[in-house]
Design a protein that fits this description.
The chain is of the alpha/beta class and 142 residues long. The chain contains 5 helices and 5 strands. The protein has a single domain, classed as 3-Layer(aba) Sandwich (Rossmann fold), CATH 3.40.50. 37% of the residues lie in helices and 18% in strands. A 5-stranded parallel beta sheet has the order 2-1-3-4-5, sandwiched between helices. Strand 3, helix 4 and strand 4 form a beta-alpha-beta unit. The radius of gyration is 14 Å and the shape is globular. The structure holds 1,3,4-trihydroxy-5-OXO-cyclohexanecarboxylic acid. 1,3,4-trihydroxy-5-OXO-cyclohexanecarboxylic acid binds next to loops.
Length: 142
């Protein structure tokens, strides 16, 4: 199974970015853990981070060529703004799980709406880095 983990804007700053909200793990720590879990299950897990909306759209398109089975995506702030990322995910028709480190529902109201959630297989919010692991376990079981 091929899993693709997509990280949106500012997630490259994890570890130092508002650690009381996002935790102290770096993106490299999170990706390494996911790769280890996937390897234990004889699956592959590629990770991609970009601060650019278009680069994320392009990576989603490439996922179809690469026969990615499942996408796990934390689109960061683009979650709340990006029709383009929504359309890309719909366009490639690869099942995906939406993850947010923080509980977006107990934060500012502009974080309560997601352009992705109604297309997602599932949504994990507020569980920190464990949310990605839960999403990966689900993807590998389905
Ligand atoms: C986030 C929540 C978003 O509202 C925010 O813009 C982020 C991170 C999270 O993981 O909690 O960049 O997606």
């Amino acid at each position: 199974q091929h899993i693709l983990v997509l990280h949106g804007p500012n997630l490259n700053l994890l570890g130092t970015r508002e650690p009381e909200i996002y935790g102290r793990q770096t993106l490299a720590d999170i990706n390494a853990r996911l790769q280890q879990l996937a390897a234990e299950r004889a699956a592959s897990c590629a990770a991609f981070q970009s601060n650019s909306e278009g680069a994320l759209v392009d990576r989603i398109h490439a996922a179809r060529e690469q026969a990615v089975d499942y996408i796990i995506i934390n689109a960061g702030a683009y979650t709340h703004t990006s029709v383009a990322i929504r359309d890309a995910l719909a366009g490639v028709a690869i099942p995906f799980i939406e993850v947010h480190l923080s509980n977006v529902h107990k934060r500012e109201s502009f974080r309560h709406h997601s352009y992705l959630s109604d297309l997602a297989q599932g949504v994990v919010v507020g569980l920190g880095a464990l949310g990605y692991e839960a999403a990966l376990h689900y993807a590998l079981a389905n």
